[in-house]
Amino acid sequence: MAETNSATKDILAVRDLRILFPTRDGRDTVKAIDGMDFEVRAGETFGVIGESGSGKTTLGRALVSLIAPTHGHILHNGTDPESLSTSQFRKHRRDYQIIFQDPNAALNPRMTIIDSVIEPLEVMREGNDASRRKRGVAALERVGLSPETAGRYPHQLSGGQKQRVNIARVLTLRPKVIVCDEVVAALDVSIRGDVLNLFSDLQREFGLTYVFITHDISVVSHVSDRVAVTYLGRLMELGQTEDVIERPFHPYTRALLSSEPVPLPSSMRVDKRIILQGEIPSPVAPPSGCRFRTRCPSVQPRCAAEVPAWRELKPGHSVACHFATVEGPPPDNQNAPRAQ
Ligand SMILES: Nc1ncnc2c1ncn2[C@@H]1O[C@H](COP(=O)(O)OP(=O)(O)OP(=O)(O)O)[C@@H](O)[C@H]1O
Ligand code: SF4
Ligand SMILES: [Mg+2]
Asked: Which residue intervals define the domain ABC transporter in the entry (predicted)?
């Protein structure tokens, strides 16, 4: 499918996305992403939150074409990158970049910082050595690193400085979209705010669109315009960050919020503290019906039999739960046995 609609405001459109991996023994299938549909608008920060194993990194990698969808499509500004020729794809994908949690992941320990920063430009054969270096130093300065940093090696920098180098490296390509996968999780708490503020400044300056993947609600509430809540490869809830955090519809979102150790504003507290119990089930054999049902305090017999429809309960605020209402998640069901 190749759509080209320059008038679209959706810089990313995810359509019936499924990403499956074979298990290690090759006998089964990991359903890392098992049916997702959503759009990311140009210029917004779109948060993705969920527990470990819910498919966030797989989604992020797919959004920037590092993994191809097993089923469905991801449209980049209306174009399916899978439909491009190799040379078109090479040019196209510089607009869609990703930064990972580990600040060392993209840095070669034997290369100087400037060589790492300009490496993507060399790969793209852009400019000559002098112009690339000039752009690299300018990018380092823009992310708050002095020109002397250029000649250093990764081991001579702090984690925060290395993450700034990673941002500079991506910036040299002048991307449209940056997927940020837990980009501050490995950093000292004291410097997370500075790095998040840098992301905000760069967004304003360069008109960037971010997909901010995190398991940290305080990060999502700090940076995101909208947030998608993921569980076992599917979306549970999606809406404006303020709405989702202050008036969640889904029992899973409510549980995530109340298990968060950071102090929450009173509007976000729920009457009874709900801690997420038990492990997330295996994505090889997710529960039937609603995949949150094995841990849901509101579970009913219907939840095992029927996959909840995706319902927009309020404009721009959608949920996948049979019993959620505009008032919020359904009440706990003390009597019903937990469905297996
Ligand atoms: N290449 C792969 N081969 C097989 N299984 C994979 C592969 N990549 C991811 N998975 C599995 O897919 C599921 C989702 O993984 P993913 O890394 O996307 O989750 P995540 O939400 O990013 O988790 P975390 O918060 O721990 O980073 C996990 O069960 C994981 O083991
Ligand atoms: S009430 Fe049922 S449908 Fe709603 S989240 Fe719980 S298990 Fe899923
Ligand atoms: Mg991850």
From this structure: 14-257
